[in-house]
Design a protein that fits this description.
Helices cover 28% and strands 25% of the residues.
Length: 243
Amino acid sequence: MIFPVILLFAFIAIAMLLPASTCAFQSSLINKRSLTRTTFLKATESPLYHHHTCIRTRNIEAAVKFYSLFGYEIETKFRAGPARAAWLTTSGRSSKKGQSDAAARLEIIEVPSYVLDEKEGTIKRALDLMKHESLLGLNHFALDVTPHIESLKKEEYYGLDQFLEDINEKSKELFGKTLRVALDPRQQVIGNQVFELCFIYDADGCIVELVRYIKDLDQNIQSGWEPWDGAGFVGADDRDTSF
């Protein structure tokens, strides 16, 4: 009987020495309901910032040219093992001690030719994710062109169709290349806001979404998932272009 009593007192002593936060954490693990309400990273305290999105390219110079059409500039060049790499930002500023102070940042990594292993006369491209809807993982990233379009102060209507036309003309003038459109501009209601959106391919065939805010709706729309009406995104046909 002496050993069980000693063991009981030992457990009590250990419990008294544990910090209150440890006990509370253990309690929350046991109580599933309280665990679902726990926020480990509170946005009001020290939020996490999106630093960059990484894209692999067969030709880093072509990739830099393409993204320059949308305001990206080289922030810094570096090596990622044997590969040439660069950070491209839309702010033109360098980061401070690794912190993210750019409006948007891309990391471009060039796949070395001996790794790419292209057959003679062929050009490798990214898998067309507009035509492979069953694949999981990162699908695309989006650029909000609303501030840019508003800054133009056009008197006549100027939407994504006009924006794409201007970017395409600029691309042909500077680089002799045309844009590939994966999905033509169309409107979509998200929440109580109306957006115009379209999808294009970058120099390697990665999908980039362009988004333009149009207006808020007067009525309140409840957040939720309505039954699917059968409509969806369908990839456009391939076009003859290297961009």
